[in-house]
Amino acid sequence: MAAGPLKETLLEIARQLAADVLIIGRKNRCGALGRLRGLTYDLVRDSPFPVLSV
After folding, report:
1. 13-41 burial string, b = 16+ CB within 10 Å, else e?
2. By residue range, what is the domain housing residue 26?
3. Domain count along the chain
4. CB 39, CB 7: distance < 8 Å
5. Measured between alpha carbons, how far is 35 from 24 in angstroms, rounded to an integer?
6. pLDDT 10s per residue in the chain (54 long)?
7. What is the rounded CA–CA span in Å between residue 53 and residue 3?
8. What is the pTM (predicted TM-score) of this model?
9. Which of 3, 28, 49, 51 has its CA 20 to 30 A from that of 17?
């Protein structure tokens, strides 16, 4: 189990698992080409490995 700020915790767990990619889901509020918001944007920006947002 991990605790802490969500973005840092997700990225740290992915590092520990030697992840090749981080796959995240997001809501379709602004249509298929909607803006990346908040946590999604932060993960894409700060991730040391590719992020797939579906």
Report:
1. ebeeeebeebeeeeeeeeeeeeeeeeebe
2. 6-53
3. 1
4. yes
5. 15
6. 677 888 999 999 999 999 999 998 877 665 555 555 788 889 889 999 999 988
7. 23
8. 0.70
9. 28
